[in-house]
Design brief:
Mean pLDDT: 83
Largest sheet: none
Distance between the termini: 74 Å
Low-confidence stretches: none
Order of helices and strands: HHHHH
Radius of gyration: 21 Å
Number of domains: 1
Structural class: mainly alpha
Number of helices: 5
Length: 118
């Protein structure tokens, strides 16, 4: 019985840090927008949410280049303003929190820029 107790105690000591790391890794989500709260969050929430739902962001998964293409398309076709010095921070946020998850890709690849509607 004593050996069994030691076995459970040893297992708990090994497993508890893993659960603590998983808990720590959980991302905080803004209730209003549904966006991950992280560096650049306020910029993205303010800049992107003016014209469209934040769901367009949370449901997308793009590479940094894909996000740049989307921004340029919105600038050409929908009057999106120049993001200026904020663009690198916005792109970093989007890539980090809504980047392309190659392990869970179930959508087709994004259309090349020349095939996008004009």
């Amino acid at each position: 019985m004593k050996k069994l107790s030691c076995l459970f105690l040893s297992a708990a000591v090994l497993v508890l840090p893993v659960f603590a790391q998983e808990k720590k890794a959980e991302k905080k989500i803004d209730e209003q927008s549904g966006l991950v709260v992280d560096q650049g969050f306020e910029l993205v929430k303010g800049q992107c949410g003016i014209c469209h739902s934040h769901k367009l962001i949370t449901q997308s998964g793009k590479t940094k280049e894909g996000w740049v293409e989307s921004i340029r398309w919105m600038q050409r076709n929908h009057g999106l303003w120049d993001l200026g010095t904020h663009e690198p921070e916005i792109l970093s946020y989007l890539e980090k929190n809504y980047g392309l998850n190659t392990a869970a890709v179930s959508r087709r690849a994004p259309l090349p820029a020349h095939l996008m509607p004009k």
